[in-house]
Structures are given as C-alpha cells and as structure tokens.
Amino acid sequence: MHSARFILLVVAAMFLGVRSAQAQLSGNTTGANAQSQTQSASSDEWQFQLSPYLFMGSVKGTTGIGSFTADVDVPFRDLIDELNFGFMGVLEARKDKLILLTDTLYMNLADSGALAGPLFSSAHADFKLFILDPEVGYRLAGGEAASFDVLAGIRYWHVRTRLEFRPGLLPGTEVERSKNWVDVVGGLRGRAHLSPRWFVVGKGDLGGGGSDFTYQLFGGIGTNLGSKASLILGYRHLKADYDGDGFLFDMAIKGPVVGFSFRF
C-alpha cells in the first residue's frame, strides 16, 4: 500500500512537471526552437548512462524444494546482517528514439526462523538470486522537460536455494537446488523535470512465461549533481511467483533505492 501511494505521488509530480514545462516553453518560443535544434543535433549520436544503485529492500515470501518449504522474511533492519553480498546496476544506451538497457541484480541472502510444527525445530534458508533484465525501448515523447518511453524485453532469473531443517521429532535434513527461467516483460517509463535541478522518474512492468507472474514498480526523485551525474532516491517493488518442477519461489523484494547515474 505504501509503495503504491509513493508511485502515485511520483506519477502526479511527473504530470505537474510536464504541464509546468509546457507553460514555460510556450512563453519562450525562440529558446525552445534553439533547444530543439541542439537536441536534434545530439540525438544522432549514441548516449550512454551507467547507474549503480543499492536496493535496500525487505525480502518476504515462500521458497521450497520438493515437499520442503520455508517462509522467508528478512525486514529492512536485518537486511545488512543477512546480505552476504550484493551488486546492482543499470547500463543504458540511447540513440534518437531507440533505447537499449540492461538491469542487473545479484543478492546472496539468508534467513532463519522457528517452525510451528513438531517435525522440525527450525529452518534456515539460504538463497542466491541473480536477475538479468535486458530491454529494448522506444521514446514516444521526449525533450528537456519530460520524456515517456515504452519498453519490452526479458527477465532472466537464476535462483539457488538451500534449505536446512533442524532436528525436532525427525532428524535434521538439508536440500539444495538451482533453477533458471525467463519471463517476457513489457512496461512504461517516464521522467519529468520539476526544475532545472530536480526531476522525478517512474517505471513499471509486468510479464510472465517462466513464472506464473512477475511485475515491478519504481518511483523516485533525483537531483542533478552537474551536467554528467545525478543522485536518485526512490522505492522499488519487485515480485515473482514461480512454481514448477518441484521448485517454489514466491517472493517479493521491496524497499528504498539509492543510486547514482553517470552520463558519458
């Protein structure tokens, strides 16, 4: 609910930014024409952007191998302790209206908890998550004031899960398995400037194929740190529901994001 409200606020701010920018541009036609000519001259060249980020999300859901399942609940306050290693980043290339981007995320997480049943006293879940999200996009509308893109691509998942059940009425046991799958995804992305320095961004997609259903929402606010760098603060919600071949991964990762963008 909180993430949905945040995304709605970002979308509203984007529309307000577009209207404000349109009003400013209509009052200065000469400046707009000069800006348009400059942008047209540079649109024929490839533009690149690298955005490393930290996704400080809570992880909650159910994972399972065969008949063994375990609930995973790692809140944000425990994420730093449980996150053994993580890497996140987006690489984007754009030429005129064509957009190519790849989002990469790797997390190594663990969680332990007591079980309600008497068969085992507690369970420990350790899983490694790798997501590669290459997409192709087209800029439907764009300028210095705002831009709006449509995107489509795939989301490749690699999940390795190890479940350790500690002794209760039954002796302890351990199971481990890896699974790969690919989802087809499509969505929209927008950006609007609130001022020469501040801007808002938003992105959402959904899809499926390998998993029953996957989606993500992101909304944030950013500030330019010069002509080549930006700082972005936002909120992201990433969800996947995969259940097949005796492997279960029904997980949601959601929480704040902080990242830097470098243009070159």
The helix-and-strand class reads alpha+beta
Strand tally: 12
The CATH architecture designation is: Beta Barrel
Number of domains as seen in the coordinates: 1
Average pLDDT figure? 80
Strand order of the largest sheet: 1-4-5-6-7-8-9-10-11-12
Count helical runs: 3
- Amount of beta strand: over 45%
Helix percent band: 10-25%
Radius of gyration: 22 Å
CA(first)-CA(last) distance: 37 Å
Taking the sheet with the most strands, its summary is: 10 strands, antiparallel, barrel
So what's the overall shape?
elongated
Which CATH top level class fits? Mainly Beta
CATH superfamily: OPCA outer membrane adhesin/invasin
Give helix and strand order, one letter per element, not per position. HHEEEHEEEEEEEEE
Brief overview, please?
The chain is built from 3 helices and 12 strands. The protein has 264 residues and is α+β, with helices and mostly antiparallel strands. The longest helix has 25 residues, at 2-26.
Task: Explain this structure.
This protein is of the alpha+beta class and 264 residues long. The chain has one domain (2-263): Lipocalin (Beta Barrel), CATH 2.40.128.100. Helices cover 18% and strands 66% of the residues. The chain has helices at residues 2-26, 29-43, 76-82, and strands spanning 47-55, 58-65, 68-74, 85-95, 98-114, 120-142, 146-167, 173-193, 198-209, 213-224, 229-244, 247-263. A 10-stranded antiparallel barrel has the order 1-4-5-6-7-8-9-10-11-12. The longest helix has 25 residues, at 2-26.
